[in-house]
Every structure is written in C-alpha cells, then in structure tokens.
Amino acid sequence: MELKGGYKLRVLREALGCTMRDVENASLQIARRLGSEEFGIPPSRLSDIETKGVVPSVFRFYSLAAIYRRDYRELLSWYGVDLNDIHLDVGAAHPPNSHLTKASESIAQISIPVRLDPGFSLKTTTNLVE
Question: What class is the 5-77 domain?
C-alpha cells in the first residue's frame, strides 16, 4: 500500500523527534528570515497536512524540507509530483516561437538517445526533449 504524503511527513517528523510545536517554531524563524508568513506552519495546519490529506503550499513545502532536512523534490514526490518527469510534459504546449528552455536543468536523471530520429532537420525548429 502506497503511503500518503501527509502520513510520510508525520512519520518523518516523529523519527526526527520533533513535536508539532517544534515545527511551528522553526517555520516561524524561516518565515521571519524570508519576510513572509506564508512559510509558517501552525500546529493545526500541520495536523491537517498529516492526517486530513491537506496539501502544503509551495512555501510550506519549503519550510518542511528545511526543517526535516530533506530535498524539496522528495517531498513533492510524496504527493505525486516527480520533477524528473517534467520532460514528458514539456511537449503538451507548442509555442510558435523558437526559444531556450530551462525546464530540464534540474532533472536528476536523463537518458540520451543512441541515434537521432531520421526526421530530425537543422532547417526547422525541433524540440530536443520528448
């Protein structure tokens, strides 16, 4: 059975020996440093995240990753967002103008084709990411 993201966060928090109040205090320090209360995580919200399936905001994901000393990408993956697969979705939009993209810069793993598609032409704009 796949564990839900909130449950995994609770297991991680407890394994680190942190109380909900510890997380709140640490998140408030982060919020003060960054100048935004969006990074703060009150115990009631943490409880909702851990037990009621509430998905943390991007700001709270940041705080949780820092407090729990985990990679942001790992926490996102617990909620079904795998940034290593972003290249699979880049082709969903087809901008008419050629441009450089940085969507694949943070991918941790990538496979390289051993040969080019015979339809590849330097005379036309081509997506280099599938």
Answer: mainly alpha
